[in-house]
Amino acid sequence: MQTNLDQHAKTLPGAEEAERILRSCVHCGFCNATCPTYQLLGNELDGPRGRIYLIKQLLEGQPVSDKTQLHLDRGLTCRNCETTCPSGVTYHRLLDIGRAELERRVERPLGQRLMRNGLRAVIPRPVIFDALLKAGRTVRPLLPEALKDKIPARAPAAKPRPAPRHARRVLMLEGCVQPSLSPNTNAAAARVLDRLGISVTAVGNAGCCGATDYHLNAQNAGLARARRNIDAWWPTIESGAEAIVQTASGCGAFVKEYGHLLRDDPAYATKAARVSALARDLVEVLAAEPLDTLQRNASQRVAFHCPCTLQHAQKLGGVVESVLQRLGFDLSGVPDSHLCCGSAGTYSMTQPALARSLRDNKMAALESGKPDVIATANIGCQVHLDGAGKTPVRHWIELVDELLSQG
């Protein structure tokens, strides 16, 4: 695609990358065939090809408006189009560049600004999030359905974690909302890793991965959180931790981008590249271990929802399913498993109508094989899908932990 960035756009931090991405697109339209929002809305501007044209116009200095912002906001950043694209267009990076510049050019309505600032103030801060979640549970019966289905009715209990005792050590990103919404997930991961001779080293001063800020166009704030995590992890990395494990695939996808996002920071580029190289989704660690010795006969039939951040961003589609089958689980088929559930970070709150339609479609596909339980690998997807109030949705590692505890 030919492009000619205007003088202002050429001064942006991502100018060279944006121009390279724009020129790599051959506008073939294959991306629209697998784009969830294009399938729902049928509008060229609500598919990746149309959004690429909008960003091109923006960076070439053409007029933009709140309608431009609407179409860019509707993008899920599910990266399904990247899996489909024959030209290797890194669409999500162009979208981040375009959204950040549009945020500077077009002022949002007050309501949108308040919501986005509120999400940024609450989600990355576990103490605040936990307090508000508990308050929300108290008044849950009085809330409208749109809010009620985002607040789990009760807090599940977390079982104890094993004390570190093995020579093999990993770090674990605890996450922002997961400790409150699904506190047993990381504990279950620690117990399963312990069975495999791997101990989890706690690093209390590591916090939010930065994805919430970054994808709400507060990119500097997101990168500041990335730097704080690198500083927190670095002493343990230097002392021999073999991996940084994420149980939420959304966080994992972002941590694996630290090296790229901080490549021009002289103080952090080398460390960020090392952190990204050590980042592992939990399933990557388990898949490399001798799981056959742990095999059991599972009684539950499971449908696995593979999050977009696992299959499209981290390219790990089918790996959790393989691990579950190796451990003896009975998996049901899931039609259109490549499509997004509509959670997409904060998307279910900023675009609730579209998110609900995507969730309904996904739940129909997941329940088509009549599973006893639905498993996933990302807390956002888990809460979003479970909010439908149908087949229960849990993190897959909890099912594994319970199975192994029976043996």
Automatic annotation (TrEMBL):
Its EC number is 1.1.99.14. The keyword Iron-sulfur applies. Signal peptide: none annotated. It catalyses: (R)-lactate + A = pyruvate + AH2; glycolate + A = glyoxylate + AH2. Residues 16-46 form the 4Fe-4S ferredoxin-type domain. Transmembrane segments: none annotated. Binds 2 [4Fe-4S] clusters. Component of a complex that catalyzes the oxidation of glycolate to glyoxylate. This is Glycolate oxidase iron-sulfur subunit. It comes from Caballeronia udeis. The lineage of its organism: Bacteria, Pseudomonadati, Pseudomonadota, Betaproteobacteria, Burkholderiales.
